[in-house]
Design brief:
12 strands, about 15% strand
Length: about 325
């Protein structure tokens, strides 16, 4: 059976310490480049210490191959601004970037920014946003567009972006609205790792973390020591759940509150205790490698991988990836 080669973007949990934020991102960016990862995911939001476009330029200026995956939320930028950044990076570094298109942030942040659109409306706006960015980057003529959320009149971006540097658009969402935009705009659809693993995969991209050790028992034991249960952290998650309309967060939260490791290695405790934004896959190097091969056989080509900015832990992840034969 033909399998797809995996393209992996590591993402680190949001660090509450601004003094360490840039150093940790750069550590992961350098590690990613040395180990063949595509690039690093850069989050956006009111609570992010460094604007992702600024961080992307810092990474591009201090690396030779890394292609950042930049989170883009229409609430923060006009489509022309995004297209201009992509074009500018192409001019400065001759490097491709990837765009992780999102609509969500905390409900309180939306209100603070004066954004009162519904969940469905925000995705409709996202669809228009992607269309305008693509037309600006690929078009040879000025574009005129009259949508509900954006309008342009003979708008043109110069110079035209080389086709090889055209960004790929990812959609990170689990709702029908997200799937609709992904279909309409031809984006790479992402989903959270499902509890039944490969049987539940319906998208070409998945988001999860890896905790791997030499043996399955060792991985399970050390994972529980690294991600400790905490009533305080569970309360923190509960508070954030009251401040979001994210479908994928609600689905993960409802999937189970015990935090017990499933026999197949699926684990929600890092999410339930607000230590990660996704499920984890826990097992031996061989276990994880076998799962990755099966994911690739299901035509998964893109993985957003939750990681900790720790060299020792990253080496464990790489051992599992190396065994898989699909990375």
């Amino acid at each position: 059976m033909k399998t797809t080669k995996l393209r992996i973007f590591p993402a680190i949990p949001r660090n509450p310490d601004p003094a360490k934020y840039v150093d940790e991102l750069m550590r992961i960016a350098r590690f990613s480049e040395l180990n063949g990862f595509a690039g690093i995911l850069l989050f956006t939001g009111n609570d992010i210490f460094v604007e992702p476009w600024s961080m992307a330029q810092h990474i591009l200026a201090n690396s030779s191959k890394s292609s950042p995956l930049i989170a883009v939320n229409p609430i923060y930028m006009h489509p022309f601004t995004v297209a201009k950044y992509v074009s500018s990076f192409a001019q400065l570094y001759a490097r491709k970037v990837y765009l992780n298109m999102i609509t969500g942030t905390a409900i309180s942040d939306l209100r603070n920014l004066g954004d009162l659109f519904s969940h469905e409306e925000r995705y409709s706006r996202l669809s228009e946003f992607i269309y305008v960015v693509r037309q600006l980057l690929a078009g040879t003529r000025p574009i005129t567009f009259n949508g509900r959320f954006y309008a342009t009149n003979n708008l043109q971006l110069r110079p035209r972006l080389p086709a090889a540097l055209m960004p790929e658009f990812l959609i990170a969402g689990q709702s029908e609205d997200a799937r609709r935009v992904s279909r309409e705009m031809g984006c790479v659809m992402m989903q959270m790792l499902p509890a039944n693993l490969e049987e539940g995969i319906t998208a070409p991209g998945i988001n999860f973390g890896i905790f791997a050790r030499q043996t399955r028992d060792q991985a399970r034991r050390e994972a529980k020591l690294s991600f400790k249960d905490s009533a305080e952290n569970r309360e923190l998650l509960k508070y954030t759940m009251e401040n979001t309309d994210s479908v994928w967060k609600w689905r993960l939260n409802e999937a189970g509150q015990t935090g017990e490791l499933h026999e197949n290695g699926y684990w929600l405790l890092p999410f339930l205790t607000y230590q990660a934004d996704c499920p984890y896959l826990v097992g031996s190097y061989a276990d994880i490698a076998a799962r990755l091969r099966r994911f690739a056989e299901k035509n998964v080509g893109t993985i957003i991988l939750d990681v900790v900015a720790d060299e020792k832990e990253l080496r464990h992840v790489c051992k599992a990836l190396a065994l898989s034969g699909v990375f």
